[in-house]
User: Which sequence fits this backbone?
C-alpha cells in the first residue's frame, strides 16, 4: 500500500533550506567577522587572520573527510586517533627512527633523505598510505565483518592510540627537520600554507562528491544501499572509498599537525574527531546519511575556529566556546529534524 | 458496495453488533485503498475476511486498530460512534490485533512480554517472580506448554506467535483481529491457536480472522466477508457458501479491459533456467523469449521473488543452470546480471527500489551514470536530458528532476523504478509486483510500457500476486507454491479457479 505522498511543497522547501543553510553559514561567519572587527582591535590583523586560517584549516580537512563517511550513513570516530598516529609515524620516518627502513628502501634503489631520516616527501607519502590502509581496514570491518561503523572506528581509535604510545614510549618525539616544520608557518601571497592545503584538498573533493558519478553513488548508498546495489552500484567499492578518503584526510591533518607542532605525539589530536563531526553537522551534513556538501563542513570548521579565536581575543573564558558549540549543534540538528518531519 | 448482512435475526441472542462500520473508507494519494464499506461484527462471532493481496485487508486492519485515521465514514462501538484514531484508543476499547509478524520484545522473558505495559509492581519495584507465576498460569490455562520464564527469542516463531496471542487475549480484549496468524505455525501450533480462538468465542470475544487458507475459514469461521480492489463485495454465512463462490467473489472480472495485450513475434530465448535452485526456491525450469511476458503467480512467500533475485545474482544459486541467449553463464552479483542485460524492478519500492530522499533525476540515472560521464565528471546536460526524457516519456508527475523521490505518489514512484532501466537498454526486464499500490490509470500505463519493451525485442518476467494481471498479460504462466514451480500454462490456458487452487494447494 502506498502511504500518503507529501505534496509538492516539501521538496521545494528542502532545496530552499539547503541553499538557505549555506547562505546562513556564510552570513554567520561574516557577522562574526564584522562583530569581532568592531569589538576588538586585534581581530582584523594579518597576524590574527592567518592564525585563524591555520586553526580552521586543520579541522576543515578533518571534517571534510568525515563528511564522506557520514553521507554513507556511517561515522568515523577514528580520525583524531589516525591524525595523532600519523604525527608519530611521520616523525619516526623523518627522524630516521625506523630501524632498517632506509636499507630496505635503498635496496629498491630509493635514496635516503638528507638528515639521516627519509626524505620528507617519501616520509609523507608512506604516512598517508598507512592512513589509507587504516581506512581500508574500517571499510573491511563494515563490509566484510558486518561491524557497525561506530564500533570498528571506535576500536581502531583506542588501538591506534595504544600503538602510538607504545612506539613513543608514551612521550613526544621532536621533529628537527626545519624544512618540514617550516612548511606550516610558511605562506604564499599572504595566504598561509595550511589554508592552501584546504583548497588543494577541497577541489578534488568537490569534483568527486558533486560532479562525478562516484559522488552520486555515495549519496545513493547513504540513502538506500539496497536500491543502489540492485541498480548495479558496487556498494562495497563505494564504502571502501568513503573510509579511505576519511582516513586520508585524517592522515593529511596528521602531517600538517606534526609540521605545526614539530612533534610526533600519539594523543595530540585525540578529541578532534568530535570537532570534525560537529563541523560537518553544523555544515548541514545529516547523520542519517545522503545529505551533505563539500563546502558545509569547511564553513562549519571555520565557524568553530572563529568562535574560538574570537573568545580568546575578547577574553571570554575559553570554556564558553564549548557551550556555544553545543548550542549551535542542537539548533542546527533541530532545524534539520524539522525539515525531515515536514516531509 | 455491500450491505451489512446481519446474522439471521434469531440465530443468536445479541442486542446489536459490537462493532459496526458505516461507509468506512480510506484514501491515499492516488489510491482508494478502501471504498465505503458497511459491515457489522456480532459479539462472539468468528468473522473471516478474505481477499487478494492489495484488496484492502491491511487497510481495514489499520483502520480498526487506530493505526491510520480513516478518510470517511463511521465506526460504531457498542452502539456509540467512536473516534478510533490512535492505537491507544483501540486498546482502551478492547480492540486488539495479532499480526502475522510477531511484534514483541525478543530479549525479554515470555512473562515480561505478556505483561508488557501492564506490569505487576510493588511500590515501583517489579514483582518478577509473581509475574512469571501468573504468566505460567495463563499459559497452562490456555493449554500452551511453554515456559513463562524463558527468553522470548529462545522460542520458535510459531511459539512466539502463540505468546502474542496469549498477550492479546488476556487484556480485557473484546474484539481480536488475527492477521494471517498461521503463516508461520506448525500444524500442531495452529491447532492450539484454533482451540484458543474457539475459547475466546465461547467467552463472547469477537474474532476477526484474516487468512489465505480456505480450509481454515471453513473449519473456524461463522461468517466470511470478501474484499476485492478495496471494495467489500459480500458477506456470507460459512455454512451457506463454498470455496467456488468465495474464489469467484475474490476475482474481479470487471476491470479486464485495462489488461491491454498486444501480441508480438516470439523471438529467440533470452533467459533459460534449468532445474535452478537457491535460497528459497528449488528446481525452477523456465524460458523467457524475446517478445513475451512470462508470468509467475503464487501467494506471498511462494518463492517467486527469491527465484528472480537468485537469477539476478543477489544470492548465489546452489544448483542448476542459467543460460543467457543459449550460453551458460554464472551470475555472481547484481552487477553481473546488469552487465548481461537484465533489469530488476524490485518488489518493495521503498526498501529496494528507490533512494527516497534523493532526487527523481538521480534515481532515474542511477544505473547509467557511467554512460553520462565524460572524462572525470558527469556531463550535466546529458544527465539532465536523460532524466527529463524519462519524466516526459513516462509522464511522471513531479516538480521536476530535482524533486525528491519521496514527494511522488506510489504510481509515479513505480514509474521511476521501471524508468531507470529504460535508458539502460536491458534485454530482460523483471517486474516484481509492479502494480501494488498503484491506481488503475497508472496500471494501464505500466502495461502499455510492457508492450513498448516487447516491441523493442525485450523479454519480461512479471511477478504478481494479483491473478487477473498475470493471467491476462502472460504468454506463459508458471504457478509457484512453497518455493517450487507447481505448474505451467500457456496464455489463458487454464481457468482462474484452477490456477488459484494450484497456488493455494487445497
Assistant:
Amino acid at each position: 500500500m502506498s502511504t500518503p505522498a507529501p505534496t509538492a511543497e516539501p521538496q521545494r522547501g528542502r532545496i530552499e533550506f539547503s541553499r538557505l543553510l549555506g547562505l546562513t553559514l556564510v552570513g554567520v561567519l561574516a557577522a562574526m567577522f564584522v562583530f569581532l572587527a568592531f569589538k576588538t582591535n586585534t581581530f582584523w590583523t594579518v597576524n590574527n587572520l592567518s592564525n585563524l586560517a591555520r586553526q580552521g584549516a586543520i579541522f576543515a580537512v578533518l571534517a571534510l573527510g568525515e563528511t564522506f563517511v557520514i553521507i554513507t550513513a556511517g561515522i568515523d570516530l577514528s580520525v583524531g586517533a589516525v591524525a595523532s598516529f600519523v604525527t608519530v609515524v611521520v616523525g619516526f620516518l623523518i627522524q630516521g627512527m625506523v630501524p632498517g627502513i632506509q636499507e630496505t628502501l635503498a635496496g629498491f634503489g630509493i635514496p635516503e633523505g638528507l638528515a639521516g631520516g627519509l626524505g620528507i616527501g617519501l616520509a609523507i607519502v608512506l604516512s598517508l598510505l598507512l592512513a589509507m590502509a587504516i581506512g581500508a581496514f574500517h571499510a573491511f570491518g563494515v563490509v566484510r565483518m558486518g561491524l557497525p561503523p561506530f564500533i570498528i572506528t571506535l576500536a581502531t581509535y583506542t588501538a591506534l592510540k595504544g600503538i602510538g604510545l607504545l612506539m613513543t614510549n608514551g612521550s613526544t618525539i621532536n621533529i628537527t627537520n626545519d624544512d618540514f616544520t617550516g612548511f606550516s608557518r610558511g605562506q604564499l601571497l599572504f595566504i598561509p600554507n595550511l589554508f592552501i592545503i584546504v583548497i588543494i584538498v577541497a577541489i578534488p573533493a568537490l569534483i568527486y562528491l558533486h560532479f562525478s558519478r562516484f559522488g552520486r553513488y555515495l549519496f545513493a548508498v547513504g540513502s538506500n544501499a539496497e536500491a543502489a546495489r540492485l541498480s548495479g552500484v558496487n556498494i562495497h567499492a563505494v564504502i571502501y572509498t568513503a573510509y579511505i578518503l576519511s582516513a586520508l584526510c585524517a592522515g593529511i591533518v596528521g602531517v600538517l599537525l606534526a609540521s605545526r607542532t614539530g612533534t610526533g605525539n600519539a594523543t595530540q589530536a585525540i578529541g578532534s574527531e568530535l570537532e570534525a563531526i560537529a563541523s560537518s553537522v553544523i555544515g548541514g551534513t545529516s547523520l542519517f546519511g545522503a545529505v551533505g556538501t563539500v563546502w558545509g563542513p569547511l564553513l562549519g570548521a571555520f565557524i568553530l575556529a572563529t568562535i574560538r579565536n574570537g573568545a580568546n581575543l575578547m577574553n571570554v573564558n575559553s570554556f564558553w566556546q564549548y557551550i556555544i558549540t553545543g548550542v549551535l549543534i542542537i539548533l542546527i540538528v533541530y532545524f534539520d529534524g524539522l525539515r525531515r518531519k515536514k516531509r | 458496495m455491500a450491505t451489512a448482512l446481519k446474522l439471521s435475526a434469531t440465530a443468536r441472542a445479541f442486542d446489536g453488533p459490537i462493532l459496526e462500520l458505516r461507509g468506512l473508507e480510506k484514501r491515499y494519494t492516488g489510491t482508494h485503498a478502501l471504498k465505503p464499506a458497511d459491515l457489522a461484527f456480532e459479539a462472539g462471532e468468528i468473522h473471516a475476511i478474505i481477499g487478494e493481496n492489495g484488496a484492502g485487508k491491511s487497510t481495514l486492519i489499520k483502520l480498526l486498530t487506530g493505526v491510520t485515521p480513516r478518510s470517511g465514514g463511521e465506526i460504531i462501538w457498542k452502539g456509540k460512534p467512536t473516534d478510533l484514531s490512535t492505537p491507544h484508543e483501540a486498546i482502551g476499547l478492547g480492540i486488539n490485533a495479532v499480526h502475522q509478524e510477531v511484534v514483541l520484545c525478543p530479549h525479554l522473558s515470555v512473562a515480561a512480554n505478556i505483561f508488557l505495559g501492564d506490569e505487576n509492581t510493588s511500590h515501583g519495584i517489579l514483582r518478577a517472580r509473581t509475574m512469571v507465576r501468573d504468566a505460567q498460569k495463563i499459559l497452562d490455562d490456555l493449554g500452551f506448554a511453554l515456559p513463562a520464564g524463558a527468553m522470548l527469542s529462545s522460542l520458535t516463531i510459531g511459539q512466539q506467535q502463540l505468546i502474542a496471542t496469549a498477550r492479546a487475549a488476556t487484556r480485557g480484549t473484546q474484539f481480536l483481529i488475527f492477521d494471517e496468524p498461521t503463516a508461520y505455525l506448525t500444524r500442531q501450533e495452529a491447532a492450539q491457536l484454533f482451540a484458543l480462538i474457539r475459547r475466546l468465542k465461547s467467552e463472547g470475544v469477537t474474532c476477526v480472522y484474516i487468512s489465505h487458507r480456505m480450509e481454515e475459514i471453513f473449519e473456524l469461521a461463522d461468517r466470511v466477508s470478501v474484499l476485492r480492489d478495496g471494495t467489500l463485495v459480500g458477506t456470507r454465512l460459512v455454512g451457506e457458501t463454498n470455496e467456488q463462490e468465495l474464489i469467484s467473489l475474490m476475482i474481479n472480472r470487471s476491470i479486464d479491459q485495462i489488461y491491454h495485450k498486444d501480441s508480438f513475434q516470439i523471438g529467440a530465448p533470452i533467459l533459460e533456467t534449468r532445474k535452478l535452485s537457491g535460497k528459497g526456491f528449488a528446481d525452477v525450469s523456465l524460458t523467457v523469449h524475446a517478445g513475451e511476458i512470462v508470468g509467475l503467480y503464487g501467494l506471498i512467500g511462494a518463492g517467486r521473488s527469491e527465484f528472480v533475485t537468485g537469477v539476478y545474482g543477489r544470492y548465489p544459486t546452489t544448483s542448476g543452470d542459467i543460460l543467457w541467449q543459449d550460453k551458460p553463464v554464472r551470475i555472481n552479483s547484481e552487477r553481473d546480471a546488469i552487465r548481461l542485460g537484465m533489469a530488476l524492478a524490485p518488489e518493495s519500492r521503498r526498501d529496494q527500489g528507490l533512494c527516497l530522499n534523493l532526487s527523481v533525476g538521480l534515481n532515474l540515472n542511477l544505473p547509467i551514470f557511467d554512460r553520462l560521464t565524460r572524462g572525470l565528471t558527469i556531463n550535466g546536460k546529458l544527465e539532465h536530458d536523460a532524466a527529463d526524457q524519462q519524466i516526459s516519456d513516462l509522464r511522471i508527475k513531479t516538480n521536476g528532476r530535482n524533486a525528491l523521490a519521496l514527494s511522488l505518489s506510489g504510481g509515479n514512484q513505480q514509474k521511476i523504478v521501471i524508468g531507470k532501466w529504460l535508458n539502460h537498454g536491458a534485454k530482460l526486464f523483471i517486474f516484481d509486483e509492479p502494480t501494488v499500490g498503484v491506481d488503475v490509470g497508472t496500471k494501464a500505463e505500466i502495461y502499455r510500457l510492457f508492450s513498448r519493451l516487447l516491441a523493442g525485442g525485450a523479454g519480461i518476467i512479471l511477478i504478481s500476486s494479483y491473478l487477473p494481471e498475470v493471467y491476462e498479460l502472460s504468454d506463459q504462466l508458471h504457478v509457484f507454491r512453497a518455493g517450487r514451480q507447481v505448474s505451467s500454462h500457456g496464455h489463458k490456458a487454464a481457468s482462474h479457479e484452477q490456477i488459484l487452487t494450484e497456488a493455494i494447494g487445497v
